[in-house]
Amino acid sequence: DLGSDKLEKLFNEIISNHITTIVLQFNYGFFEFSHLCNFIKKIHAKKIKIIIFLHSTIDPKYDQTKRLFDIKSILSLCHRLLVHTPSDLNRLKDIGLVDNVSLFPHGILDFDIKNNHNFTQSTSINKDITKKIVSFGFCLPNKGFKELINAIKLLIDRDFAVNLQILAAIYDE
Fold it and tell me: Which of the residues 101, 108, 119, 168 has the least number of beta carbons within 10 Å of its own beta carbon?
């Protein structure tokens, strides 16, 4: 949790460095809502643009202090709220947040390569040229790092030149 003291330090750094736009990564477990609301109000008062990636919009069942509806007036101060699925868009719409909400889907959508004639004809992979693959995000069990590492091993075992770089933050909890 980014407590009020850490958010106060962050606020001071933002002001002293004349930052004009901030991007926050929102997950329910990262913030006490009261601290987050105070922080956003202070940032907004300084005319700094606020963009929030909402990685989840499903309120926790067992914590009534963390409901997006309760902070919708604060979220409406943000320049942009970015969500990953149409269901997230609809949940925000249901609580009255529409104008500042945009869809920002994750990664590449699955598709059937066998039925994509143009892709299979125009794509050739040179095994000798090193491909750099980079992943970013919190190092949590559900983020697919284990699967990514196993996939890289499969490529290496098939003589592909691959370089994997993982830029991951460790989540203390």
Answer: 108
Band (pLDDT 50/70/90 cuts) for residue 120 is very low
Give the Cβ contact number of residue 76 at 10 Å: 14
Q: Give dist(CA 173, CA 168) in Å, integer.
A: 15
Q: Taking Cα atoms as reference points, which of 85, 74, 87, 88 lies closest to residue 24?
A: 74
Angle at CA 66, nearest 5°, toward 102 and 139?
70
Q: Is the pTM of this model over 0.70?
A: no
- Strand spans (E) along the chain: 21-26, 49-54, 80-83, 101-103, 131-138, 162-169
Closest CA to 57 of 87, 100, 79: 87
